[in-house]
Write a structure and sequence with these properties.
The chain is α+β, with helices and mostly antiparallel strands. Helices cover 15% and strands 67% of the residues. Strands 1, 2, 3, 4 and 5 form a 5-stranded antiparallel beta sheet that branches. Strand 1 and strand 2 form a beta hairpin. The longest helix has 22 residues.
């Protein structure tokens, strides 16, 4: 891994640390369940669909993402808590995320991400397959039609 990627990973990991503290100190406004696939050799791509549970209603969502410093192919299932969501439409957007984890058969990855509206999502991902990751991710999440 070159120094630029390493510096970027470290910067975003440190930047994401306060998100975890802020998110854990409050009750989540919503929960999220997603499943999909990820494929990567250096740069990875994830495509997933799922459900956002917000104020007693369920809404379909789609997630697409890119990551650096990742290798493997895996199926993913994730659950998460959503914080600072005051309006449903605020969940849609581009998220900056930092994550770490490893799976050779079954493994787990923890990801904290925040979008331009201040919405914070903490994802707990279970992977099946090969997935080695210490990544900085860019994720697009939107409400599905």
């Amino acid at each position: 891994m070159n120094r630029t990627y390493a510096a970027l990973l470290m910067s975003l990991s440190l930047a994401a640390s306060p998100l975890v503290v802020n998110a854990e100190s409050t009750t989540p406004d919503a929960t999220l369940e997603i499943s999909g696939k990820t494929v990567a050799v250096g740069v990875g791509f994830t495509e997933a669909k799922g459900t956002l549970h917000y104020q007693g209603q369920s809404y379909p969502v789609q997630m697409h993402g890119l990551s650096l410093a990742q290798a493997g192919a895996s199926n993913i299932e994730a659950t998460g808590e959503v914080y600072h969501l005051s309006r449903l439409q605020d969940v849609s957007g581009s998220y900056a995320a930092a994550s770490a984890g490893a799976a050779l058969v079954d493994g787990h990855t923890e990801t904290t991400m925040k979008n331009q509206n201040g919405v914070v999502i903490r994802l707990h991902t279970k992977t099946e397959g090969v997935d080695l990751r210490l990544s900085v991710d860019g994720v697009s999440l939107k409400l599905a039609q």
